[in-house]
Amino acid sequence: MPYILEVQRFDSDGHLQHPEWNGKAEHIGYINKIFRTKWDACHYYDNQFPHMRSLNAHNTWISDWEPNTRFRYVVRKWYGEYLKISPFPERTIEI
Fold it and tell me: Phi and psi dihedrals of 2, rounded to 5?
């Protein structure tokens, strides 16, 4: 089963500003990259955000929200959704 990363904007007060909404995260889109396993998606996220905890640190397959962008990332099974968000640029590791 292929997997993808969903991007959500986290807003802890969103349900207070919009009482008709349930939850605290707004769907932004999906990153245009398909992964063979959940762990591949997790490692991809971990490599892009080394200053953050691992995506699966709490065994939920949901990252913490990034303080600058307020985005969080969720591993999802891919069922043919449009993948509109450009992937992260490849990071080069200097040795």
Answer: -80, 155
Residue type, 36: R
Question: What pTM was estimated for this model as a whole?
Answer: 0.83
Domain boundaries, the chain: 3-77
Residue 74: half-sphere exposure toward Cβ, Cα within 13 Å:
15
What is the DSSP secondary-structure string of 29-45? EEBS--BSSHHHHHHHH
- Distance, in Å, from the CA atom of 43 to the CA atom of 59, rounded to the nearest integer, reads 14
Considering only CA atoms, give the Rg of the chain: 14
pLDDT tens digits along 39-56:
999 999 999 999 999 999
